[in-house]
């Protein structure tokens, strides 16, 4: 039975609208992805000075725990349940220290060298095997996407070995290990998604579940949890991006000479004027 | 993990003064270990989808492919009839779904026969090769290429083109679609009355 996937972004802190726009402005000043910087240079929106800020989101990939999140000692979020995405948070570029707490105390710390203008997901999750927890950061590619399409990026942050992600019955993302991601540009639709061990059809790690991919956005899908605990789930993080390309044409007028008089496909030598 | 020792041991003089050393280390305070850095997620492999920059037809002739935009409902292909245009809202070569649409002039009043006049002689089963540069910011500059096998060559009335299921749709199986003009040429009715639509499926 397919389940619907909830977005998991905490209400009121969604990655769309004016705050998303401000997120993109923060990206522009520094080392933005080439596509986005190029498009916005053309539009004259690139600011002249470099920003020393960056944008972060937290993706809570530990099933069952409600965690608190600190950056340089300051609490930015608390009671974050598994699958939730919180943010955006604006931080200064440079070395930052994250703290993650649950069961009443800080459990884990990590440092990150934050680059100016960057936009990243900070993901707390289980390692592929063994005990403990780990933190992996993923840069968000905010390049423009064509109308009606999306950048679908799947990431493996679960306690399983390398996996294949099947979309509508076909392996679209192959051999993804814990800490890795893959991306494809796809039409914005609802897809049936199933995760299996690489090269196999069973045992099913997660799914089949229905995934609604949002147009005009980066759609990040994180598979997290531990199958043996029956805690496998997905966290979904969408960020609106700019539109590239143009809409479908109604007409393709491609001839004005009247030279190709014969409408039936024929050898070129038989065309007469 | 290093522990810094602030005690006198770190500045111990030469072995000639052993009485300075304290074996208990009670006065030293190891510095707290600094946290580990986060792990950086990375792509399992690069996305190799590419924008077409060159198309090669059966027989070996090839032409440059440039991006073409739809303006007011009309796909504006390059005026130079020896070049062809890739609709910039269509799939990259290597995207999992949808038509990669390339259109070009069959001819023009000023330049004679165009590169895509060759489409009239294409047959089902023949191969077309498309080359291009990587869409993503890949560090290697390898020119990518993909081969397609023609599955249909059809004439479509020009007003029926936009509703033709194979021509422009961006969902469904990935395919290459080549479009030019065809059919009767009626100057009083805007010229060619039809489009020639060649559809090809990816090989390998």
From TrEMBL, chain A:
Residues 54-165 form the DUF4397 domain. InterPro entries: DUF4397 (IPR025510), TAT_signal (IPR006311). Residues 245-273 are annotated as: Disordered. Keywords: Membrane, Transmembrane, Transmembrane helix. The keyword DNA damage does not apply. It holds the Pfam family DUF4397. It comes from the Bacteria. The chain crosses the membrane at residues 26-46. This is DUF4397 domain-containing protein. The lineage of its organism: Bacteria, Bacillati, Actinomycetota, Actinomycetes, Propionibacteriales. The keyword Phosphoprotein does not apply.
């Amino acid at each position: 039975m397919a389940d619907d996937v909830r977005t998991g972004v905490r209400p009121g802190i969604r990655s769309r609208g004016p705050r998303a726009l401000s997120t993109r402005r923060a990206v522009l000043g520094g080392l933005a992805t080439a596509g986005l910087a190029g498009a916005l240079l053309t539009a004259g929106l690139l600011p002249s000075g470099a920003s020393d800020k960056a944008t972060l989101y937290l993706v809570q990939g530990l099933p069952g725990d409600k965690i608190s999140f600190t950056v340089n000692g300051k609490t930015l979020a608390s009671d974050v349940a598994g699958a939730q995405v919180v943010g955006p948070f604006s931080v200064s570029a440079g070395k930052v220290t994250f703290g993650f707490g649950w069961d009443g105390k800080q459990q884990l710390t990590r440092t990150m060298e934050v680059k100016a203008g960057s936009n990243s997901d900070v993901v707390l999750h289980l390692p592929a095997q063994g005990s403990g927890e780990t933190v992996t950061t993923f840069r968000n590619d905010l390049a423009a996407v064509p109308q009606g399409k999306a950048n679908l990026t799947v990431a493996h942050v679960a306690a399983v070995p390398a996996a294949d992600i099947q979309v509508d019955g076909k392996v679209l993302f192959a051999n993804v290990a814990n800490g890795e991601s893959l991306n494809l540009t796809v039409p914005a639709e609802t897809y049936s998604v199933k995760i299996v061990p690489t090269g196999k059809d069973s045992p099913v790690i997660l799914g089949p579940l229905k995934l609604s991919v949002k147009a005009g956005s980066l759609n990040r899908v994180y598979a997290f949890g531990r199958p043996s605990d029956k805690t496998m789930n997905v966290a979904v993080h969408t960020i609106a991006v700019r539109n590239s390309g143009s809409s479908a044409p109604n007409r393709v007028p491609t001839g004005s000479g009247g030279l190709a008089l014969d409408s039936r496909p024929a050898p070129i030598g038989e065309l007469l004027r | 993990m290093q522990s810094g020792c602030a005690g006198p041991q770190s500045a111990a003089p030469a072995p000639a003064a052993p009485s300075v050393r304290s074996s208990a280390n009670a006065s030293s305070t190891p510095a707290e270990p600094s946290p580990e850095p986060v792990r950086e997620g990375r792509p399992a492999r690069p996305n190799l989808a590419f924008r077409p920059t060159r198309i090669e037809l059966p027989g070996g002739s090839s032409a440059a492919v440039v991006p073409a935009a739809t303006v007011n409902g009309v796909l504006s292909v390059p005026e130079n009839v020896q070049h062809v245009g890739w609709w910039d809202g269509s799939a990259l070569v290597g995207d999992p779904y949808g038509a990669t649409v390339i259109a070009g002039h069959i001819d023009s009043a000023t330049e004679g026969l165009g590169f895509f006049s060759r489409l009239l002689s294409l047959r089902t089963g023949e191969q077309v090769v498309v080359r291009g540069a990587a869409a993503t910011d890949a560090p290697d500059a390898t020119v990518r290429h993909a081969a397609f096998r023609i599955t249909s060559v059809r004439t479509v009335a020009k007003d029926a083109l936009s509703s033709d299921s194979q021509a422009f749709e961006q969902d469904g199986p990935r395919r290459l679609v080549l479009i030019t003009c065809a059919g009767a040429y009626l100057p009083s009715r805007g010229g060619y009355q039809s489009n020639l639509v060649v559809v090809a499926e990816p090989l390998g």
